[in-house]
Specification:
The chain is an alpha+beta fold and 676 residues long. 19% of the residues lie in helices and 35% in strands. It folds into four domains: 139 residues, Jelly Rolls; 222 residues, 3-Layer(aba) Sandwich (Beta-lactamase); 86 residues, Lipocalin; 81 residues, Lipocalin, CATH 2.40.128.50. The strands form nine sheets. Strands 26-27-28-29-30-31-32-33 form an eight-stranded antiparallel beta barrel. It has an eight-stranded antiparallel beta barrel with strand order 34-35-36-37-38-39-40-41. Strands 14-13-25-24-23-22 form a six-stranded antiparallel sheet, with helices on both faces. The protein starts with a helix and ends with a strand.
Length: 676
């Protein structure tokens, strides 16, 4: 153990602090934490809270003295600012950087590999300032088994005043871990358990695909059948959209959630009839069938309709008799109506983050069954995962067919099978899907090479973000999957410090557009740091700090994404590649005057949506209103192209031969014509 004075002096020396400067230091020994302010020592036990206030550009540091192979759990409550948490080991090596939420709780978890003083630094996001509260909840030996590591997470997440969730692990067909935390119902204080049913959102899609695959195996239909064979009321686009196109998301139908929102309709008030009628009004496919993948709920809503058409039964009845009951999933059902009672179920919550987190109940998409709407428990989901190990229902041929990558008409493949994402995680093949509906979240992961499945439920978005961190933790170098051999994957290594010249960072800054539609990226430099905002058109883009791996390749704080800039022979930077090889090309931003903006003002009508949009210039900005409650700021991007948030995305304006604006087309391909 190092002395308290030694820790304090080490931190002062590292910071080159002035005598009057206030320094926060935390010292941990024998279960007690001691904060040092200046040279005043105040005892604070684990579980107690340290409150502070950060100014712009400030930094508060806390030293935690640990033995090797200990794990620390804690959180910082971001009262009215966005805080970046950075953790360093005793040799000043970077252990973790955490910046997931802009308000509310930021979860802190790290493990020590060396004994000594570990430093936790809190800094405000650029330009931010405000108050926070920091607390350490658990400091204990690192778990050496998968079950032990999960138990540490579950105990940390188990709060008596917050929503919760459950997690289960299946190995070789047997459940080796199941645990739950938090509350299923905040109003009545009902705990979330492994027997609590929750809406699994889009994790319902693999079940719908499984149903279609069972019918195909029994000769009731063919994947190559035109969907209009079973649903003749759908439009004839002049080329068949097959069931396989729908299963692979390559059919070209628009996303119903987006188009309904474009109408200004409020989620939760949509009916099944609304959905089908809107599909019937679609005037053209977004792409020729099989040419490109565009993930939609629409495809799986239509597949559920196909199941009903083929079997003559309702989708919930057929699923219960042919999927849920044979798998022993006794606490699983399909919800189709808002008034439907699901016994022992969780309520979904959205946390409104500010000075204090306020919980609001979410609205579910009951009419979207087939794409979403299945309520189940982690215990039942574990049985579903077990069927991938030992396919008692459907047999190996159905499971094999579901886990084949889809093939495009060009011959290329996509990372999606029948209702499942097909990919690689930490060197292992993985079949997976995640989902969200009405603030219920779920995930299903299955690793065939080690015959292990992980299933997860939660009833708020806060805990849904934890799954990725838990998944990384499960496959850490000190953890092993009991009784199942697995490769030594090691830890994700933190990048070595790299200094990039400011002139080079300035050359990287600018606006870039992806080769595919709707994706843009803006890189900015602040001092010797590069930041990026990637805009998909679905929500207000978040701003991420980048960290150099070399003078041309960077990673974000999660180290899950890479960004590589490409210089031509003249040293100019015209292209950047993001994770997965998607290329973005430099573009000149469009900066219109008020007079330029005035050319776009007016009223526009969509025959497909049967709505009028009104555009106006206000305070030097173009704004859009529709029948819904939201008012949109339309941001200029390039000449005649503007961008905004979901559900509109990108607006591409069209002009006549005289240069007059005649209408626009949204990202989803919906056409609006100018009426005045």
């Amino acid at each position: 153990m190092v002395s308290k004075l030694s820790l304090f002096l080490t931190e002062l020396k590292r910071r080159k602090a002035r005598p009057a400067e206030v320094v926060y230091v935390v010292f941990l020994t024998l279960g007690a934490v001691f904060p040092i302010r200046g040279q005043d020592l105040t005892e604070l036990g684990v579980g107690r809270t340290i409150e502070g206030e950060l100014s712009a550009g400030g930094r508060h540091a806390f030293l935690v003295d640990l033995n090797a192979n200990q794990v620390v759990f804690g959180e910082v409550d971001q009262k009215n600012l966005d805080i970046v948490v950075t953790v360093y080991d005793p040799e000043n090596g970077h252990l973790a950087r955490i910046d997931e939420f802009q308000r509310g709780w930021e979860l802190i978890r790290f493990e020590s590999s060396k004994p000594g003083a570990h430093r936790i630094e809190l800094t405000p996001a650029p330009g931010g300032s405000g108050r926070y509260a920091l607390r350490l909840d658990q400091v204990e030996p690192s778990a050496t088994t998968l079950a032990g590591g999960l138990d540490q997470w579950v105990r940390f997440l188990d709060k008596e005043d917050r929503p919760g969730g459950a997690i289960a692990v299946v190995q070789r067909g047997d459940v080796t871990y199941a645990g739950a935390f938090g509350l299923a119902d905040l109003t009545y204080g009902i705990p979330f358990t492994t027997e609590t049913a929750s809406n699994i959102g889009s994790v319902s899609k693999p079940f719908t695909a499984f149903a279609v695959a069972l019918l195909e195996k029994d000769g009731e239909l063919s994947f190559e059948d035109d969907v209009r064979t079973y649903l003749p009321e759908l439009p004839d686009f002049g080329q068949p959209v097959t069931l396989l196109h729908l299963l692979n998301h390559t059919g070209g139908f628009r996303e119903l959630h987006a188009t309904l929102s474009m109408q200004g309709r409020i989620p939760g008030r949509w009916t099944r009839e609304d959905l089908i009628q809107l599909v019937q009004r679609q005037q053209a496919l977004q792409n020729p069938p099989g040419e490109a993948m565009s993930y939609t709920n629409t495809a799986y809503i239509l597949l559920a309709e196909v199941v009903e058409s083929v079997t003559g039964e309702t989708f919930p009845e057929w699923m219960e008799a042919n999927v849920f009951n044979p798998l022993g999933m006794e606490n699983t059902t399909v919800k189709t109506q808002d008034s439907q009672i699901i016994p022992n179920s969780a309520e979904g919550y959205a946390g409104i983050r500010g000075e204090e987190v306020v919980w609001e109940e979410g609205d579910e998409l009951d009419a979207f069954f087939g794409a979403t709407g299945i309520y189940t428990t982690v215990e039942d989901l574990a049985k579903w995962a077990g069927n991938f190990s030992d396919p008692r229902v459907g047999g190996p041929e159905v499971v094999s067919r579901m886990t084949e990558r889809g093939v495009l008409s060009s011959g290329g493949t996509i990372a999606y099978g029948l209702g499942l994402s097909i990919g690689i995680h930490r060197g292992l093949r993985r079949y997976s899907h995640s989902g969200e509906d009405g603030q219920h979240f779920a995930a299903f992961h299955y690793y065939p090479e080690i015959d292990t499945g992980v299933v997860y439920l939660s009833n708020d978005g806060f805990h849904s973000s934890v799954l990725g961190r838990i998944a990384e933790d499960l496959f850490g170098e000190d953890r092993s999957v009991e009784q199942v051999p697995k490769p030594d994957l090691g830890r994700v290594q933190d990048p070595a410090p790299v200094q990039v010249q400011v002139t080079l960072l300035e050359a990287y800054a600018g606006h870039y557009r992806a080769d595919g539609p709707g994706l843009t990226a803006v890189f900015t430099r602040e001092d010797n740091r590069l930041f990026v905002q990637v805009d998909s058109g679905w929500r207000e883009p978040s701003r991420l700090a980048l960290y150099p791996l070399s003078d041309s390749t960077f990673t974000d704080e999660t180290q899950r994404q890479t960004v590589t800039f490409h210089r031509d022979v003249d040293g100019r930077v015209e292209r950047v590649t993001l994770q997965g090889g998607l290329a973005y090309r430099r573009m000149t931003p469009f900066e219109p005057s008020d007079e330029d903006l005035g050319a776009f003002a007016g009223s526009y009508y969509s025959q497909e949506l049967e709505v009028v949009y009104t555009l106006r210039v206000e305070d030097g900005k173009l704004r859009l209103s529709n029948p819904g409650p939201q008012d949109f700021e339309i941001r200029p991007w390039e000449p005649d192209v503007f961008r905004t948030v979901f559900p509109l995305g990108e607006l591409r304006f069209e002009r006549d031969t005289d240069g007059e604006v005649t209408g626009f087309v949204l990202t989803e391909g919906v056409v609006f014509e100018r009426v005045r």
